[in-house]
Amino acid sequence: MTVYFIGAGPGAADLITVRGARILAASPVCLYAGSLVPVELLAECPEGARLIDTANLDIDRITAELVRAHADGDDVARLHSGDPSVFSAVNEQMKRLDEAGVPYEVVPGVPAFAAAAAALKRELTVPTVGQTVILTRIAQRATAMPAGEDLATLGRSGALIVLHLAARYVDRVVDELLPHYGADCPTAVVAMASRPDEIILRGTLDSIAEQVKAAGVIRTAVIMVGRTLGAEQFRDSHLYSPERDRHVC
């Protein structure tokens, strides 16, 4: 049978895609990260489904559960928070399934940064202000960053930076980006995006750290730094411009 890596979305149960929900409702086995995936989603599983919380399982035990389900002839819904394409640890699972000869598919989901932008009511790309978004993280206890992907290097671009897994180290983020963005650069932090306990913090690069500490935000958050967050004066996009010749392909 098939293992489906499903992006469960940023938190709100109804932000899973229609495709993801359909597969979840038809899969007799579901693996999910209990600390990140909303429990309301599990109600979509079929009656009698085998539910496995992976929060305290290592990669070998997770793989064993996937291979076991395949051997039993069961489809598997493997729920991941956000979208599987970024910071999801899906690669190592797919690699092991390839080695075991187990088929799989990937179902995209709503990423955390998109939910955060929606909460802020901001488009992250603004004509003449900023057209580039960098998704990254910082190295701390997790895997080291590759050469050239440190914040000091990425910050030289001046592009909007979206940091995952970094709220605990907000002071370090500020220190490394200040030389490139300036103290007055618009900055926002969104924790638990789309959930009932969502927290939205808005400020500047020199004020955001104190807000994050005061709010007690240390995880499940994204930090955004860039001029597009505060853009008020900008040129309309060409897409809907009345000056655009709509007869030209």
From TrEMBL:
Location of the Tetrapyrrole methylase domain: 2-208
GO MF annotation, one: precorrin-4 C11-methyltransferase activity
Pathway, per record: Cofactor biosynthesis; adenosylcobalamin biosynthesis
InterPro entries recorded: 4pyrrol_Mease, 4pyrrol_Methylase_sf, 4pyrrole_Mease_sub1, 4pyrrole_Mease_sub2, Cbl_synth_CobM/CibF, Siro_Cobalamin_biosynth, Uropor_MeTrfase_CS
UniProt KW keywords: Cobalamin biosynthesis, Methyltransferase, S-adenosyl-L-methionine, Transferase
CDD domains assigned to the protein according to its UniProt record, in alphabetical order: Precorrin-4_C11-MT (cd11641)
Top-tier EC class: transferase
Biological process terms in GO annotation: methylation
Domain of life: Bacteria
The protein's Enzyme Commission number: 2.1.1.133
Record carries keyword NADP: no
NCBIfam families xrefs: cobM_cbiF (TIGR01465)
Family: Belongs to the precorrin methyltransferase family.
Official protein name in the record: Precorrin-4 C(11)-methyltransferase (EC)
Provenance organism: Streptomyces globisporus
